[in-house]
């Protein structure tokens, strides 16, 4: 609740550069709570039939989740590797962006399908946080599966993380939270 306005602002950003800059200014938002908030917002938007806005927020939710899973697989703090995620996205690194797009489409599809079900409507009224956690866990497993099964992608992530310290040292605006 304390950061709700900032999370909503982040959710509305559409360009990689804008998202990276915003997270550079607010690195504490690179966390699971932000991802959960964005996921829940997607379900509310779909229920309100605001599909285009839901798809934008879904993009940002998947981006945050990718950053968190990248950090987890490399055993680093997510606040220290979000720049690497954006670097890969902006240069359209083969395999990486494809995995991102695959998960984004799968997530949007899950939101659409689940929001249309009778069970979702009943569950979202009774206890929306339980359903959000379920969808969140499903998304995490899906992303983790993509990362683990894409050996070229995993190797690329590992090489990139190994070079992360040198990349961060070259950054013009080093931030205290960027250290691993």
From TrEMBL:
Q: Which InterPro entries match?
A: Cdc37, Cdc37_Hsp90-bd, Cdc37_Hsp90-bd_sf
A Gene Ontology term for the protein's cellular component: cytoplasm
Task: Name a GO molecular-function annotation.
Answer: unfolded protein binding
Annotated Pfam families? CDC37_M (PF08565)
Q: Where in the cell is it found?
A: Cytoplasm
For the biological process aspect of GO, one term held by this record is:
protein stabilization
Gene3D superfamilies from the entry?
A: Cdc37, Hsp90 binding domain
SUPFAM superfamilies cross-referenced by the UniProt entry: Hsp90 co-chaperone CDC37
Keyword terms of this UniProt record = Chaperone, Cytoplasm
Instruction: Establish whether keyword Cytoplasm is in the entry.
Output: yes
The Cdc37 Hsp90 binding domain, residue ranges: 1-130
Is-annotated flag, keyword Chaperone?
Answer: yes
As for family, the record states: Belongs to the CDC37 family.
| Purpose of the protein | Co-chaperone that binds to numerous proteins and promotes their interaction with Hsp70 and Hsp90.
Q: What is this protein called?
A: Hsp90 co-chaperone Cdc37-like 1
Q: What is the lineage of its organism?
A: Eukaryota, Metazoa, Chordata, Craniata, Vertebrata
Its gene name is Cdc37l1_0
């Amino acid at each position: 609740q304390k950061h709700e306005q900032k999370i909503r602002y982040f959710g509305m950003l559409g360009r990689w550069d804008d998202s990276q800059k915003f997270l550079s200014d607010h690195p504490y938002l690179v966390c699971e709570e932000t991802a959960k908030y964005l996921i829940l917002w997607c379900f509310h938007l779909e229920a309100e039939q605001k599909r285009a806005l839901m798809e934008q927020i879904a993009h940002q939710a998947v981006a945050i989740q990718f950053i968190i899973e990248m950090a987890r697989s490399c055993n680093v703090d997510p606040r220290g590797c979000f720049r690497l995620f954006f670097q890969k996205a902006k240069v359209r690194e083969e395999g990486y962006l494809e995995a991102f797009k695959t998960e984004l489409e799968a997530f949007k599809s899950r939101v659409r399908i689940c929001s249309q079900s009778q069970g979702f409507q009943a569950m979202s009224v009774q206890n929306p946080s339980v359903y959000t956690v379920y969808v969140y866990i499903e998304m995490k497993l899906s992303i983790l599966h993509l990362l683990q099964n894409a050996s070229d992608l995993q190797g690329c992530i590992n090489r990139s993380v190994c070079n992360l310290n040198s990349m961060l040292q070259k950054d013009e605006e080093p931030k205290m939270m960027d250290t691993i």
